[in-house]
Structure formats: C-alpha cells, structure tokens
Design goal:
Helix content is 52%, strand content 12%. By secondary structure, it is an alpha/beta fold. Strand 1, helix 2 and strand 2 form a beta-alpha-beta unit.
C-alpha cells in the first residue's frame, strides 16, 4: 500500500501474532451493550467450525466512550457455549485497535482489511457490533464459501421485518439489481465474507478518504464485487435483529450518502451496466427457516406530512429534476387521503431514475439533490407500509420483486438519456 494506515504499535502487535488464515472484523462505536455477545459468538463459531485454522478477531473501534473496547478485551465464553466447541488446534486471538481517518464504517473496514492483508488471511468476515441475533453458525456460513468453494464475496440473506431495511427495499436493491444484473438481496446488509484476493483489491482503491467511507462502504464493496466479476454468493443467516431505526426518523444524511454512493458508482461502472439487461439470481447457500422478528414501528402520519410538505416546499427543486408529467403524478398523490394513499411502482422507480440522471448531469448541487429525495422516499415508504399492512412476509417479498421488475423495465429509457441532453 502507498499509505500505511496502521500505527507502529498496531503493526508490532500484528507482527507478534504471526500469520492467520481467518480474520473476523467487528467495527464498533459505542456498542458496549452488544459487542461482547458478537465477540463470543464469533469466537465460538471459529472454534467449532474451523478448529484447525489460525484466526484473529479484530475490533476496529471509532473512539467509543462507553467502554466498548474494554468489553471486547473482557469477553469470555460461558460454560454453555463451551459445550458447542471442539478443542482447537490453533487459538483464536483478539485484537482491539482504534481506527484512524474519516469517521465512519469505511475507515474501520480499511483497518480490518489492512490487518488481514498483513497476516496473509485467506478469508475475512466483517460483522456489525450491534447484532443480537448472531449465532456461531454465521461464521461457518460466511467463511466456508470462501475457504472451500473459492467465492470472493459472500453477502447475507436475512429474514427481516417488512419495515426494516426500507432504503434497501425501495432503492438500493432494485436499482443495483437492474443496473448490474445480479440479485443480491441485501447489498448493504452489514455482515459479509471476503476472500484475501478481494480485500486486497479493495485496499488499492482511493475511496477511503471520501464520503463513501461514512455510509456507502457496503454498497461500494457489493458493486465492485459484481461489476468486476468477482465470484459472489449469498447465504441464509436467519433473522437480523439489531438496533433498527424508524424509517420516518431523521435519515436524510445517511440516505444521501448511500444513494449518492450508488449514483456515483453508476458513473464509475457505466461501461458495465450499459450492457446488462434483466437479472440473474446469485447462488444462495444455507437452509431457509422461519424466525421470529422484532416489530419495527413506523410513524405513518409523520411520513405523509413530510411527503406533502416536501411536494410544496421543494417544488422549485423538483421542477428542475423531474419532468412535468411525472412530477404532476407525484404531487397529485399528496392530496390523497391517508386511507387511500398510494404511489405506483412505475412512478417511484421513474422518479429514482430521474434523480440518478440529475446527479449525473449535476442539474443542481449533488448534496441538495440527494437530500431533496428524502420527502419522496418517505412518501413511497408510507405507500408501501399502508398497502402491506395486512400482508405476510411472502406477499411483501412478491411486492418487492414486482418493484424490481419495474426498475428493470424502465432501464432502457434511462440508457437512452444517460449520455444525451436534458429531456
């Protein structure tokens, strides 16, 4: 690497540990309440499923003030967990280190990947520090495709509440699928497996000091894996129970970063997605099973109010971004009563594509553009929530599938206009 991001002290610690086959990375920031469980589950999974592999658990912490790092150092396997573990041939080491650079998940990943590179890891797993549903089996599922089947990138396939992951369901998954032709259901899932070859490729990129390193790092990795033809698969992990956020809460900054990353990558990989039509499923491993899910509450009146206000206050912005007929259809929805409120899939997908085009053309400043998408997004989520209230998970998934097909069907007009003038 041209730039060494690890301190000399951390390099000495890593050097003293020697080589490792597996690195498990856990980025954290004020996760003292949950991280001990994640570390113990990772430890148990490594000892049970990979007892003959030398492993290192790395906690890359962003300056926590709640004793997160102390919780990592003190994490112990309880007696009942020892019953699940084979005696290891190699010990599992733990290393807790602060990361340096842009505050955000990307800087934590960069630290983890650099350590994995130094120890010569064949496989690396990254896990969210706020997971409450992680089980030792997750380590087997995320690592084995890399270690035994030569996959480079293993994405999670979760069972999630229908109102959890709405940015993924409404924008990131259908747009990424339509662009690159691969059905990676959770492209920003947070828990991934990577090959040593793939993480070395990531380390050569110059994204680490950009805004992508704040919220867009997951979709950046997923897009590179697909667009650059790394071997990619998915694994069933059951439920993802974590500190979910109300979709109606203040998320404009996060959404701007995630969606901005997707739009920016469209420019990077234009020569790839221009030649892709339709989509194919990605290999999916593991056993699907039904799980109990924690409910995710949403504030429907608040989202509807934000949508209506946005249609009024941001109309001058939308007039620069959205063609008049489409804008009229969107704003007409704002006058609908709550009990019949709906935004059709075709309207929503077309609006997202218009924002992608406006981002590409720099119609207005990109930050202003991305933040102005939030009220429309809240309107879409409100429509989705109202329609899916009586539906079971399978029906909701069918609805998301229909939305994805709409994105795919509307891609040719996007292509025709991407390099053309405004219109």
């Amino acid at each position: 690497m041209a730039e060494e991001i690890l301190t000399s002290q951390v390099r000495e610690q890593v050097g003293a540990l020697g080589a490792a086959d597996i690195v498990v990375g856990i980025p954290s920031y004020n996760n003292a309440r949950t991280i001990s469980h994640v570390v113990r589950a990772a430890n148990a999974g490594l000892l049970k499923y990979f007892p003959d592999r030398r492993a290192l658990i790395v906690n890359s912490d962003g300056g926590s003030k709640d004793r997160t790092r102390e919780a990592v150092e003190a994490a112990k396997l309880e007696a009942r967990e020892l019953l699940l573990v084979q005696y290891p041939l190699q010990p599992v080491h733990r290393l807790s280190t602060p990361y340096h650079g842009v505050p955000g998940k990307g800087s934590a990943f960069r630290t983890i990947f650099r350590i994995a590179e130094l120890v010569g890891a064949r496989a690396c797993v990254v896990l969210d520090a706020d997971l409450r549903s992680i089980a030792p089996e997750w380590l087997d599922l995320l690592l084995r495709p890399v270690l035994e089947h030569d996959f480079d990138y293993v994405a999670p396939y979760y069972k999630r509440h229908k109102y959890d992951g709405t940015i993924t369901n409404s924008i990131v998954y259908p747009l990424t699928r339509a662009l690159y032709g691969r059905r990676i259901r959770q492209p920003i899932g947070g828990d991934f497996g990577l090959s040593g070859r793939f993480l070395q490729r990531l380390l050569t990129r110059d994204v680490w000091t950009t805004d992508v390193a704040r919220y867009g790092i997951d979709i950046w990795m997923t897009t590179i894996a697909i667009a650059e033809n790394f071997r990619t698969c998915q694994v069933h992990l059951g439920a993802k129970i974590h500190d979910a956020k109300d979709p109606g809460s203040d998320l404009s900054a996060m959404m701007a970063q995630v969606v901005g990353s997707v739009f920016g990558l469209m420019e990077t990989y234009e020569n790839v997605w221009r030649n892709v039509f339709g989509s194919l499923p990605a290999p999916l491993f593991g056993f699907p099973f039904e799980v109990g899910l924690e409910p995710v509450s949403i504030d429907l009146p608040r989202m509807l109010a934000a949508f209506s206000q946005g249609c009024r206050d941001l109309r001058p912005v939308y007039q620069q971004v959205i063609p008049a007929p489409l804008l009229k259809e969107l704003t007409d929805c704002a006058s609908l009563p709550a009990e019949t409120f709906v935004i059709r899939e075709e309207i929503w997908a077309a609006a997202v594509y218009e924002f992608a085009l406006a981002y590409h053309r720099r119609t207005i400043t990109r930050e202003h553009l991305l933040r102005s998408l939030t009220p429309l997004y809240l309107g879409w989520v409100a429509s989705f929530a109202r329609q899916t209230e009586p539906e079971n998970p399978a029906q909701v998934e069918e609805r998301i599938e229909r939305l994805c097909l709409v994105y795919e069907q509307l891609k040719p007009p996007l292509l025709n206009r991407w390099s053309a003038g405004k219109g």
